[in-house]
Amino acid sequence: MKANAGLITGSSVQMSNLTKEYGNFLAVNDFSLLIKPGEFLSLLGPSGSGKTTALMMIAGFETATSGSIRIGEQDVTSVPPFARGIGMVFQSYALFPHMSVYENIAYPLKLRRVSKTEVDERVRRAMDMVKLPAASFADRLPQQLSGGQRQRVALVRALVYEPHVLLMDEPMGALDKNLRDELKLELLNLQERLRLTIIYVTHDQGEALMLSDRAAVMREGRIEQVAHPEMLYRYPETEFVAKFLGEANLIVVTQISESEFTLPGGHTLQSCPAIDVSPSGQRLLLLRPEEIEICSEREAMFRGRIQSSVYLGSSVRLAVETSIGVLIVSAKPDASRHFKRNEIVDLRFATNGAVLIPKT
């Protein structure tokens, strides 16, 4: 398999005005997106948002009602799946149970009439790449493998014939957290080495934030916003994106100019220039839980009463009732400080660069 560091081997993928209808149900609605060669893009959204349907149309397993799909310079809208130069990894692994690990990985090469010597070389190299040495695993059947090992086999089977684009449909959904974390790191390493174009479907925000160069958040068949994961998290353009990507405190405020707004208590603060909303009227102030600090009374912007406290290991999740509503606060655990229900705490947040989004 190719491993040319720095050399992009993937192809661009462009969807233009893509639509998919099932009777009266519009699963994908006017979907347009350009994915650059070598880019890792996640399609992120809740169940029923259209992300898997969009992926299946790229793969050729679903036929678009209208619109077009290009992979590289080729229009593949009507091209069958086997001629699109893609690899596919499913959540359910989709391994042949009667074939050994070696035979499963070799299968797409044999379909393409690759010589026996080259098949053997590619399969063994692919198995080494995902830490499944042929000497130990080649003759095993899928049912003799753990879930993580089966997913590795499914991954290299999709990569072994060197596709231009790799499609992944929630490939880690059936794995436990430790295995998911391990495979995510391996996938990042493979992406860095092979520089493939990867389109990755997930409903897991953490996966998308960790893996993607960009993520497209989908809702009801449309793209709500597409951007680098950090931009999506810090500067969502809609209420839906703000709520979907992590926990969000959304406070109704009044914008009084292009750069100023007032809190419910009357404090005037500066808004973030990165979000373009027309001045005056009600907006939503976005405060992530980690952006709210517990402070001294002298530094406080407002006070609150702890409704609940949940220990999460690396943080303590507090629900605090304040004059501007119940706020979710992420506090650092401290052996000398235990947060108790009904305890009064003082809170503040950074006032410069506060993010406002339209109220829907």
Can you tell me about this structure?
- The model is unreliable at 1-6 (pLDDT under 50).
- A hairpin with a 2-residue loop joins strand 4 (66-71) and strand 5 (74-75).
- Helix 2 crosses helix 3 (116-129), helix 2 (101-111) packs parallel to helix 5 (147-159) and helix 3 (116-129) packs across helix 5 (147-159).
- The chain starts with 12 loop residues before the first strand and ends with a strand.
- It has helices at residues 51-59, 101-111, 116-129, 134-137, 147-159, 177-194, 205-211, 229-234, 239-244; strands at 13-22, 25-35, 40-44, 66-71, 74-75, 86-90, 165-169, 197-202, 214-219, 222-227, 249-255, 260-262, 268-270, 281-287, 292-295, 302-311, 316-322, 325-331, 344-349, 355-358.
- The protein is of the alpha+beta class and 360 residues long.
